[in-house]
From TrEMBL:
Pathway: Pyrimidine metabolism; UMP biosynthesis via de novo pathway; UMP from orotate: step 2/2. SUPFAM superfamilies: Ribulose-phoshate binding barrel. SMART domains: OMPdecase. Belongs to the OMP decarboxylase family. Type 1 subfamily. Substrate binds at residues 14, 36, 63-72, 123, 184, 193, 213-214. Keywords: Decarboxylase, Lyase, Pyrimidine biosynthesis. The active site is at K65. This is Orotidine 5'-phosphate decarboxylase. It comes from Marinobacter albus. Its EC number is 4.1.1.23. The gene is pyrF.
Length: 236
């Protein structure tokens, strides 16, 4: 299942600044993982950091979870494509017009365009959290609804919990990418994540890519933690 041209592990670089991020990155191998740059690090270090990671040979998932009116969001997605990132995401709850505008805007980038995926229900949210914002269907049902909308808008896949992966693979087909955060090796703390799964269970469930942050970045030996996860999934 592991392929050096398509590493399944995406390390979430949730660091407060560039220096600790690069300290870890310089020990990593682009054949074994991709890197995710999210809101905190991007807000501090910006596009230069993304380019820095790309120069080191890594493909970058720019996780800014855009959610705005169609014109604004599609322009932001085009800016991400100009940066040459491998993957970019928006919130599916931005709706059909927003997602369609983003997909159309990327057409001019041809085969070099980033993968465009949509966040369904954040993995930190439980049924009670959804009820708190007026969504009474279960997380699983709401994820399925948003995944169908996302696929109908022509996007490449969704961010979801690995717990929803079997259903989504059956409903949306094998080519629709499932990017799953909320990954927790058995020994790792859950933290603020609600809908979690171990790395090997997530891949068995149908996840295409595993987004993993704190179990690696906050481990006493991040490299050993990544290697242990790599070994766990390499045997699948
Ligand atoms: O889009 C994401 O990457 C994302 C979506 C989601 O539903 N849940 C989620 O945790 N994430 C991101 O995935 C990473 C998970 O990090 P850890 O919980 O530390 O493994 C964080 O960078 C989150 O921002």
């Amino acid at each position: 299942m592991q392929d050096a041209n398509d590493p399944k592990i995406i390390v979430a670089l949730d660091f407060p600044s560039e220096n600790p991020a690069l300290e870890l990155v310089d020990k990593l191998d682009p054949a074994k993982c991709r890197l995710k740059v999210g809101k905190e690090l991007f807000t501090r270090s910006g596009p230069q950091l993304v380019q820095n990671l790309q120069r080191r040979g890594f493909e970058v998932f720019l996780d800014l979870k855009f959610h705005d009116i169609p014109n604004t969001t599609s322009a932001a997605v085009a800016a991400a494509a100009d940066l040459g990132v491998w993957m970019v995401n928006v919130h599916a709850s931005g709706g059909e017009k927003m997602m369609t505008a983003c997909r159309e805007r990327l057409e001019s980038f041809g085969a070099d365009r980033p993968l465009l995926i949509a966040v369904t229900v954040l993995t930190s949210m439980s049924a009670a959290d959804l009820a708190g914002i007026g969504i009474v269907e279960s997380p699983e049902a709401h994820v399925s609804r948003l995944a169908t909308l996302t696929r109908n808008c022509g996007l490449d896949g969704v961010v979801c919990s690995a717990q929803e992966a079997p259903t989504l693979k059956a409903e949306q087909g094998a080519d629709f990418r499932l990017v799953t955060p909320g990954i927790r090796p058995l020994s790792a703390a859950r933290g603020d994540q609600q809908r979690i799964m171990t790395p090997s269970d997530a891949l068995r469930a149908g996840s295409d890519y595993l987004v993993i942050g704190r179990p690696i970045t906050q481990a006493s030996d991040p490299l050993a933690a990544l290697e242990a996860i790599h070994q766990e999934v390499a045997t699948l």
